[in-house]
Amino acid sequence: MDDSVYYNVFESNLRDELVRVCGMLKALSGNLLRSDDIDAKWTELAPDYMADAMKVITDYPMVSVAWAGYMGMAIAKWWDQDWATFSQYPYARLLGKHGFDDMDEHIVNDILGIKLESDEANQLEEIMRQCATTTIGFIRHENIEPQSIRAFYIYARSVKVMFEIGAAIELHRLGYKWKNVIS
């Protein structure tokens, strides 16, 4: 199997599994909600995110994956609120007071407006933990040589999917629903 096909199959399987996991956790209704605007923002922000995440992947693999989900939630919230303004925001607006380390808390509290000690924040944390655990399991299942080119691309595809899942979770929380427009 050529590499691009391999990466695409991995990404598709991971996405399907995370949608299933989120459905079981009642965070999604069985479909991946998405927007071209949100997907394009990932393409813009990914290099900065990857630079930060790669610094912590060895010591904190769950964080390096889960924070992409939180980032997707923030972008979906901004998309819903005022995309003309928020689409201009750089990656740095997603970082917390301690940079990448507290990105999750900054997004939950300051962008999503959810009190950190609330049940809702705890639920989101559990959803992101389950998604990150599943993602790390998928990566490890591939038995790829660490620090190889293949490992980098699998990781990059994984955090992209986590971003998409985070965005879908937030769109779902905001009341958006998937509708098949092809009859």
Average pLDDT taken over every residue: 94
Number of strands: 0
Unreliable segments (pLDDT under 50, ≥5 consecutive)? none
Oligomeric state, counting identical vs distinct chains: single chain
What is the helix tally?
Answer: 6
Principal-axis shape equals globular
User: What is the alpha-carbon Rg in Å?
Assistant: 16 Å
In what range is the share of β-strand residues? under 5%
Helix fraction bin = 55-70%
Give the structural class: mainly alpha
SSE arrangement, N to C: HHHHHH
Note the gap between the termini.
Answer: 34 Å
Report the biggest beta sheet as strand number plus sense, adding barrel if it closes.
none
Question: Gist?
Answer:
This protein is an all-alpha fold and 183 residues long.
Provide structural commentary.
With 183 residues, the protein is mainly alpha-helical. Helix content is 69%, strand content 0%.
List the keywords.
183 residues; mainly alpha; 6 helices; 0% strand; globular
Outline the fold blueprint:
Blueprint: H1 3-24, H2 36-56, H3 61-86, H4 103-111, H5 119-141, H6 149-173
